[in-house]
Every structure is written in C-alpha cells, then in structure tokens.
Amino acid sequence: MNPRMKIAVAAIAIVAIAAAGIFYYRSASDDHAHGDVYFCPMHPTVTSDQPGSCPICGMALVKRPPATAVDPSAAQLAGSGSLDPSVAAISLSPEQRVTANVKTILVSPSTHTGELVTTGRVTIDERRVAQVTAYAAGRIERLYVNFTGDTVRRGQAVAAIYSPDLFSTQQEYLLSLANRERMRKAGFADARSASDDLVESTRRRLLLFGMTNAQIRQLEQGGKPLYTTTVTSPVAGVVTQKLVVPQQYVTQGQPLLEIVDLSVVWVEADVYEQQLPGITIGQQVTITTPAVPGIAFPGVVSFIQPFLAGETRTARVRVELANPNMLLKPDMYVSARIVGPAAPAHIMVPKSVVVDRGQRQFVWIETAPGTYQPREVTVGERHGESIVIQAGLTGGEKVVAEGGFLLDSEAQLRGATSGGARATSPATATTTADPHRGH
Hints:
- By secondary structure, the chain is an alpha+beta fold.
- The chain folds into 5 domains: 1-34; 36-64 and 417-439, no CATH class; 72-111 and 344-402, conserved putative lor/sdh protein from methanococcus maripaludis s2 fold; 116-126 and 262-338, Elongation Factor Tu (Ef-tu), domain 3 (Beta Barrel), CATH 2.40.30.170; 135-253, no CATH class.
- The chain has 6 helices and 26 strands.
- The strands form 6 sheets. Strands 4, 6, 21, 22, 23, 24 and 25 form a 7-stranded antiparallel β-sheet that branches. Strands 7-16-19-18-17-20 form a 6-stranded antiparallel β-barrel.
- The chain is rod-shaped and about 155 Å long.
C-alpha cells in the first residue's frame, strides 16, 4: 500500500472514531439529563447518576426531584406581571406541603383608610418655654422655688432681689412725686408740666427694672422704698431649670429659672420617605402609650420636617395635642396612628407573601394544585403588617402566604445543582467538572 493510501485510511479511521465518540457522549449526556440525579445537600455541586455518599462530607446523596416544565399558558394568567421563566415550577405532594408548611391565600381588591402607624416621642412645645430673668443687677435674697420640677402659677412670686439701682430709683420716684405736689401749689404751669414729666420718666424706669404696677402703687402708698423687689413668673408651668441659688449676685438680664407650660405638648414621629405623600398638615392623629393604658389622645399634624435623616431615611412629623393632667411626659415613647382619606381599592397582601431578591420582588403563584411558580410584582406602601401590590397580581389568584422563602431557596438550590459537577460513580464521586457539560 502506497503512502497516500495509508494516510487516507488513517484519516477515515480518525473521523469514524470521533463520530462514535460524539455519539457516545451525547447519548450519555441525554441519559444523564433524563435519568435520576443525586446530589449532596451540603455540597450541591457534587452530583451523581447513582445513589452513594459525598466524597467531601460523607453525607448520603439525595435524589433531586424532577423539574416540572413550565406551562406556557401559566404566563398568561390574569396577573399584570409575568412568571419568572428562569425558574422551573416546583410541584409538591400534599405531604410535602404539610411538611414545608406551605399555605396559600386568595387575593382580592380591598380598600383602607390610608392609616399609618408609627412610633414617636413626646417633646415640649417650644412656644411655651419661658425664662424668668433679673431685670436689675443685685443679690437674690430669697428663692420661692425650691427645686426643679416644681409647679408654678402665672404671676406667682419666684424670687426676691435686692438691687441698689432699683432702690435708688424708688427714692427718685418718691422725690419726684413730692416735687410735683410742690409745683402744683406754686401755680407755675411750666413747672407743673416739668414735674409731671419727671414723675412719668421715673415711673417708666421702675417698670423697666421689673416692678409691677401693683408694686409701684404699694411704693406710693407706703412712701418708703421697698428693700427687695419680688420677681413673678410670666407663665404657668413646670420649672425645668433652676439656675441660681439664694444670696447669689446676678447681673441685669441673667436667667433665674426656666419654666415650661406642659398643658400642650408635641409628639415627633418618624415617617419613612415613601410614606410622606400620605401625610398633610391638619391630618388627624391618635396618640397612645403603654404608660397611660386605655386613653387615646387626639391631635393634628402641625409640621412636616422639610429634610430627611440620612441614616434612617425618615422625616420628623410633628403632632400637636392637649395634655390634660400632664399625663404625657417629655421624652415618653408613644404610638402615633395617622388617619388619612380612604384610598381606592387595590391588592393588599401580608408582608410575608413578598420575597425580596434585592432590586426585584416576587410572589409565589399557585398555577395548579400543588404547583408553584414565582412572579415579579411591584410593591407600594406598607400599612401595618400588609403591603400594597401595585402591579403583578389581580383578584382571584392564589399566592403563597407561608413557605415562600422555602420555595425560593429550593428554586435557587435546584438552579445551583443543575449546572454543578457530576460524579462518575457513588464510590468515586468528585467535584471535578462534568465531562458531558456543553455537549
């Protein structure tokens, strides 16, 4: 046989062997695809076509349930969303549904009042904070408020101050009164007018030094300067700060006490940014707290903070309400129920129905008895333990209310094991690449 003939025969033999190999591997791959597959629950990449043990952990290989083909008509169900084509439907027997605790509910359009429940904290009304200050420099002879937290009335005496400047001004006022009487008897019109101006000027100085009209009348009737001047509270409330002590020297304008009127308080509640469109000024709010059981305090939204807290993505909503008997204390934690207008009918489901995959949310639909398929949905506002489904569901469909995360985990596990490694035999199972993969 000449060399050219030998080369031709060798080429034909090589082509025949290659064709046989391709046919063998494709047949083996088809057998592997359509036959039983066993995998390790702890190492899903370890697979085999026969029962055995995992070469890594020694755990017995588990038979993978066959994937159920997706019914093309299932994607045409009444929902506005579509089934996830990348995930095969999962079928469970009645016993498996009980074991996995898979429960479904029938969804239907419903309405709600736009009610929002959140937490808040009682704070003081900043408009009802007052400071008692010294109108004249001097020495505190006596404090009538003994401690922080004491309750005072409007006009109640809170301190007595001896002021040299005020004492001398009182003397000037008494002298101006006596001078006015002399000028009236003298009969000079210009002198009487000047004396009247002097009395009025000195009286205004006494008022600027903190004396009241009643104290000035007492000074006129007594004819002698008052040694101390009584400082009174401009408001009724609770002393929140005691800033001086008896016998302390104070300057003009120095704060002595801080008093807060707690008959009206604020509640500052945190509202997430997606809930803000449902909040308006004047909206009715009901405040409750475990510290005062059985009592609901009505209030209204008076202010919405114009910026968000970067860490929590929430804005403060201020509620103003009456505080009878001062039952609500500053810094007390409360629950705020904000009632809004009735919203149009829409689909609402429990929050446990929605499976969050990061940027996408899914629900599991029961496409047939015992068969489940994920569907992407668009979620909206949250109301308590329920969430609004804006798109992806319509009334009359069954969704998985319990066990959805287990179904999602099973779907991801099947996806991981379907492309994993295959062991050649139970005794020699390895994590090497599947030789049939890609054919």
